[in-house]
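Researcher: Next entry in the queue.
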Amino acid sequence: MNRLSENFHKRLRMRLIVFLSCALPLLLLPASIATAQLAEENNVDEVKSFDLGETRNVHSCGKLCLAGQFGASDIDEIKAADIRRIISLRTEGEIEWDEKAAIEAADLEFVHIPFRSSDSLTDEVFDEIRKLLKDDAHGTLMHCASANRVGGVWLPYRVLDQGVALDKAIEEAKSIGLRNEGYEKKALDYIRRKQAEKKDEVRRDGETSVRPGINDGFLDPNLKVDDFVKRFEIESREVYSARMQILRACGIKPGYRVADIGAGTGLYTRLFSGSVGDGGWVYAIDISARFIEHINTQSIRENLSNVTGIICMPDSINLPPESIDLAFVCDTYHHFEYPKSTASSIYRALKPGGRFVVIDFERIPGKSREWIVGHVRAGKEVFRNEIESVGFEFIEQAEISGLEENYFLKFRKR
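Model: Structure for this entry, 414 residues:
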């Protein structure tokens, strides 16, 4: 063992190590350039004045119409304009006729997202409007009383989703009808926060998150670990019922140093602890502080003196170079937000010839369960290519008795 690894292991003995992130990447394009490029790529439509019967203050932008209130007599003209969905921002009691009933009687879709004061203009309202407007398969009319509210909620969509420069989008929103300073302030604050979040998705090597937010639930400081123990450590779960076969297939020897990445409740951490013996070590690595707290508590209770819990970063397992013999990832690779960066950190942490075991769900549309297809972002071939792209050599797909929905892949550090 080299001196770096020896000192590292001593410092880690039965401690909880929390690594803080480094500076965010400096390779981001300036916001004005990035949004201008997005607008050019998307070939966004211009805002134009539009007539729609007696409807007040109407503007069109591609398949979207932005307007004040229309009357029941305007519905036929709305249909003739190939509008198939109405989004109303008006609150109950603002109009005297039953708009929803009239719209649905005309076989049009009615969506109600009511707000009036700037205090009631929440992130949830902006989020829902953006989601609806991105679905532009059919013509949509979004309205309030005068188009004041319409301009306020359309502004973030125009900037964040269509890439129009902020100054131009504000000018357009005001031409549509935005007058309320409170609406404008709420929209600008939302835009700035979302842009900051987008920048945070880009890591040190410029990699963008493949599944933003997929691990948010595990970051909850109030996460109930016992609930996950009941879900993860149960015979109906393949990787639990086949745990001894999986352990044998890993080929762990006494004295090995093993990283259990995405350790969760510590099922395999405990098994590996026995396999490596007193001369080996197990690093239980997870993004969840609550899981690591649980593993440390369990290790003390069961007198597992060769286990260390490590809270990792979204793009790194936070181990030093050439410090482990085996990296193990079970039903977790699909949770890697930054697969290239994370796999690269695993490659660096392995000793030459060290092995990388990946167990994950077979994702085959039309064959796999609907939950797997919706939850797991890609199939085995994609994951294998990602892992090989950072330098790993594929060894084999091992056949494990009891695994039907999961596969077992072995890789080697060249």
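Model: The longest strand covers residues 350-361.
Researcher: Noted, moving on.
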